[in-house]
Amino acid sequence: KIEGVEEEIKGVEIKLSDQSLTDLDKKYWRDEKIALRQKENNLIQGRNNLILEKNNLRQKQNALINTQSKSKPLPRFKYDMEENINDEYLFPYNGIGKILLKREAFVNKLCDEILDPSKVEEVSCNHYFRSARGNGKTTFLKLLGKELENRNCEVYFFEHAKFLDDYKEKVFEQAQDEAKKTGKTLVIMVDEVQENIHSGHWSHLLKESKNKVVIGAGIPQLEGGSPDFKNKHSSSEMYFNCQSKDMEELIEVFMKETNNKNI
Q1: Helix, strand or coil, per DSSP, at residue 183
Q2: What is the four-CA torsion angle of 194, 155, 135, 230, rounded to 10 degrees?
Q3: Average pLDDT of the chain?
Q4: What is the pLDDT of residues 172-181, one digit of tens each?
Q5: Phi, psi of 141, deg, nearest 5
Q6: Are 15 and 29 contacting, i.e. CB atoms less than 8 angstroms apart?
Q7: Which of 10, 81, 221, 263 has the smallest number of Cβ neighbours within 10 A?
């Protein structure tokens, strides 16, 4: 637009150079030139304002990029089952149960299998546990996470698979590097896997990294689809498996519940 106005001004100057113009015509073209100059100045000011606005937006963009590049750390595991055990609205996470069975013998056996050195060194050391809604998957993950922490693991816990996409891939890589420096095994636990089966993170979590354990829990079997967990466990593998010490715990709980010491 500025270039167009400059061309118009050149045309007016050519008109004004005509010696045959009357005084009235000269006045008309001088006024026209003044108006065009004003129009040009307004356009130049508008252009400068747009450049300033562009620079401001670019600064905001850079600040946003810098903020995003400083990704928040992965969510660390927190064992909070004991805190809510007496609150029927909180324990276990609005599920149907109100009694916490720690299943220590069973959990220890599973952790032995999960942390088998020959498996942890594999590229795809991962496990998926499935069960119907309300059957205690979250409680089960919490019990596993506590024992894995006790075994010198660096445990992170995603209470919902949708939260995976809140993090950059490099944050997972950094967590693995930090665990390696401290001599710990990195464990990433993901609940409600079925809610985000198409996340781009599954590829590197399950296939591309060594010395990492990924444990997921969800409802479907995930047969032939993504995410491609290597070790898939049915709901029956989340409970007692008839471990003697765990049965003693179960009997003790029922004795306490019935207030009958003679059982």
Answers
A1: coil
A2: 50
A3: 83
A4: 989 999 998 9
A5: -60, -40
A6: yes
A7: 263
- 3-state percent helix, strand, coil for the chain, nearest multiple of 5: 55, 10, 35
Give the list of residues 6+ apart from residue 218 with CB closer than 8 angstroms, or none.
128, 129, 130, 137, 161, 191, 192, 193, 194, 195
Q: What is the dihedral angle through the alpha carbons of 114, 153, 227, 110, rounded to the nearest 10 degrees?
A: 20
- By the 10 Å C-beta count (0-12 exposed, 13-18 middle, 19+ buried), 100 is classed as middle
pTM of the predicted model over 0.70:
no
Specify the amino acid at residue 79: Y
CA pair distance 139, 249, nearest whole angstrom: 17
Q: Residue 235 has which token pair?
A: 């709901």
The two beta strands, 126-130 and 212-218, are parallel
117-118-123-126 Cα dihedral, nearest 10 degrees: -70
Tell me how far apart the alpha carbons of residues 192 and 161 are, in angstroms, rounded to a whole number: 6
Residues 6+ apart with CB under 8 A from 27: none
Q: How many CB atoms lie within 10 A of CB 136?
A: 22
For 83-122, the pLDDT digits (tens) are 555 554 444 444 445 677 788 888 898 899 888 887 777 6
How many residues make up the chain in this entry?
263
* Among the listed residues 237, 204, 202, 200, the one whose alpha carbon sits nearest the alpha carbon of residue 222: 202
Q: What is the pLDDT of residues 16-52, one digit of tens each?
A: 898 888 999 989 999 999 999 999 999 999 999 999 9
| Separation between Cα atoms, residue 185 and residue 225, nearest integer Å | 27
